[in-house]
Every structure is written in C-alpha cells, then in structure tokens.
C-alpha cells in the first residue's frame, strides 16, 4: 500500500569480504548493494537499526530511497541474508526501480475468522505472487475463513486482490484447505491393552499363598 517513502542514508563501500563485513557490523552497519538494469552495482553500507525498523514496519518488499553522497536511488528490498541462529542481517540486495513501474513480488496471505466447529484449517500456501505498482505493494492479502465447513477450499483465484494488483501465481494454487481432524491410530498392542472403557486392563492377581509358619523348637534332652 502507498506510504511515505523512507530515506536511508548510505555510505559508499570499498572494502569487501568477511573481515570488512565484521568491521561494519561492529559499527552497527550492514553491507548492501543497489543494482538495476540502468546503472552499475553500487556497493554501500546501511545503518542496521534503521534497516531493521523498515523490515519490521514495512515488510520484506519495502520501497525506500537510498541517498549515497547526495544522490538518491529509489529501490525495493529484493533479498535479505540473515543469520539462521541470531536472525541478524548479514547483507541486503536492493533493486533500483522507477516510479510507475510494475514489479512482481511475493505477498504473504493471512487468514482471519474462525472455521466451523470441529473443522481443521490447514494453510497450504503462505504467499502468492502478484504484479503491483512499485509504490503500492500490499504488505499482505487477507482472506476470511469465517464459518468455512469441512471440505471447503480456498484457491488463489478466490483471493480478493487489491485494486492495483493482478495475480501472477497459478489461479488453482491451493491456499487454505478445511478438513476433518484425523484421529490418531493406536498400535495394535496398545489397543489390546485397553479395555472397553479405554483404561488399561490390569493382569489378574496371583492367588495368595499361605503364610509360612515356623516349626516349634524341640526340647533338648
């Protein structure tokens, strides 16, 4: 959706490699590259806190204006390399775009509402690919599952596209499937051990053996 474009102040980057990246991160900056069909790649570093804020509030398809030495570049976040353990951003790729340009992006699909009682909701696809104006990329597409019954399905063509978007994904892509919960089957030996009331049957107790009695002591002669 349309919003004010955030301006990111970037610094030119001339050092490369893991050592240079570590030095940048110590200064709370991350390496990034701005690339596009109408200029050579521009290697820069970005403030890590500002970049994290954009990801958190505008999503992975955010469009920003990157200012490098007084020159501004309209760019869309294209790829983010994150550490799988810490989720820290290690590197970012930004694609130069032009106002009015159409781009293809993956947009998250979010469900809302509650299905019918006893129904299990499974989401088979978390994103769909759409074509949208670069300055009006939706952050998410919401679909209602309110009252959906067992056997109902929602496919990509059922999604309500925002006015500026067209669906690129296969229209028959299954998004949401409403199914009947499956009862977990018990192993045969477990079923045999259960009684009719579902409780474990105990083995019959052994008959009690008579207590042993001590023989009376004999008198010594």
From TrEMBL:
Listed GO MF terms: 5S rRNA binding; structural constituent of ribosome
GO cellular component: cytosolic large ribosomal subunit
Keywords, in A-Z order: Ribonucleoprotein, Ribosomal protein, RNA-binding, rRNA-binding
Region of interest called Disordered, as start-end residue ranges on this chain: 181-221
Family note: Belongs to the bacterial ribosomal protein bL25 family. CTC subfamily.
Described purpose of this protein according to its UniProt entry: This is one of the proteins that binds to the 5S RNA in the ribosome where it forms part of the central protuberance.
Subunit structure as annotated in this protein's UniProt entry: Part of the 50S ribosomal subunit; part of the 5S rRNA/L5/L18/L25 subcomplex. Contacts the 5S rRNA. Binds to the 5S rRNA independently of L5 and L18.
Protein name: Large ribosomal subunit protein bL25
């Amino acid at each position: 959706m349309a919003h004010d474009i955030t301006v990111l102040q970037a610094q030119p980057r001339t050092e490369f490699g893991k050592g240079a990246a570590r030095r940048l991160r110590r200064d709370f900056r991350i390496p990034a590259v701005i690339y596009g069909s109408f200029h050579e790649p521009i290697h820069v570093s970005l403030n890590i806190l500002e970049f994290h804020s954009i990801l958190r509030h505008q999503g992975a398809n955010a469009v920003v204006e990157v200012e490098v030495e007084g020159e501004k570049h309209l760019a869309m976040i294209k790829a983010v390399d994150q550490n799988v353990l810490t989720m820290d951003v290690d590197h970012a790729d930004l694609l130069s775009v032009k106002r009015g340009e159409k781009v293809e992006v993956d947009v998250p699909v979010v469900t809302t509402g509650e299905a019918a009682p006893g129904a299990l909701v499974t989401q088979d696809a978390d994103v769909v690919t759409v074509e949208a104006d670069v300055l009006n990329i939706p952050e998410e597409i919401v679909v209602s599952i309110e009252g959906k019954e067992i056997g109902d399905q929602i496919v990509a063509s059922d999604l309500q596209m925002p006015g500026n978007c067209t669906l690129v994904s296969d229209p028959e892509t299954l998004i949401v499937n409403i199914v009947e919960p499956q009862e977990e089957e018990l192993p045969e030996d477990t079923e045999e051990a259960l009684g009719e009331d579902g409780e474990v049957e105990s083995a019959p107790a052994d008959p009690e053996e008579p207590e042993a009695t001590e023989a009376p002591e004999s008198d010594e002669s």
